Amino acid sequence: MEQYPKVYLYRRIVQAKLFIDKNYAERIDLSYISDEACFSKFHFTRLFKTIYAKTPHQYLTWVRIEKAQQLLREDKSVSETCFLVGFDSLTSFSGLFKRNVGISPSSYQAQMQQLKLAIKKSPASLVPSCFALQHGWFEK
Amino acid sequence: MITKMTITNIHVLNQDSAYDFYVNKLGFKLVDDIPMGPESRWLTVSPPEQPDLQLVLFPVTVSKMFPKDVAETLIGLIKKGIFGCGVLTCNDIFATYEELKAKGVEFIKAPTKEFYGTEALFKDDSGNYFSLQPLNNFGNEDSI
Lengths: 140, 144
Prior knowledge:
The structure holds 2 protein chains of 2 kinds. By secondary structure, chain A is mainly α.
């Protein structure tokens, strides 16, 4: 079934999506991506949204915010995170982060740090007892 | 009264490799990664749009739960691909198939029209298999 209908269309859209996944931190020109995929910008945006329920721009923002959460969990500062995921402005980054995640980047990082402390203090308290008992983790 | 399932197991052969498969290839979100001694950790992931369901990537190692003969039998069965772990849903089965293939996921069956709808089958890094189906499987399988 390699030749399902419109296989050539799917492959081009998927390659564009994977390009965004890999290059999210760079200054991505979505017109360039649509050209590379051999679509008009309008057609590319429409197909992308049909498949992924997000426009390419929305998807890029989503990837950046996901990566930002990961970097904040790794104790990178908010400003460093902002630039590492491809934002130019701390204000835009913080606003978009809060809109997507529900809390500010600094609040998110504080929460994650609290969680890490709790894990360090008592790791087994965050694991359901049935699993820990079956695996002998309490004894260790 | 039972209301929902919140945690379920997937038995895996190697947690590092399973992490790479479920998080980096399938796009699941990491929920917990808590070291529990030198040989294992509490490692759970969630499907991207189901944050309240945790899949425990449970290592099959000789332990209180798995005596040596049981562990060896279970490892053999997992490697043989005996265990189907359920159905994963996607918006568009063809786009998802192309993406997972590009990321190196091994498919047992490409998207195929069956009497119950369109379905693909793939294996995880240990040998467990999943059915992949589009959201509205009795409607249009492709969205474009």
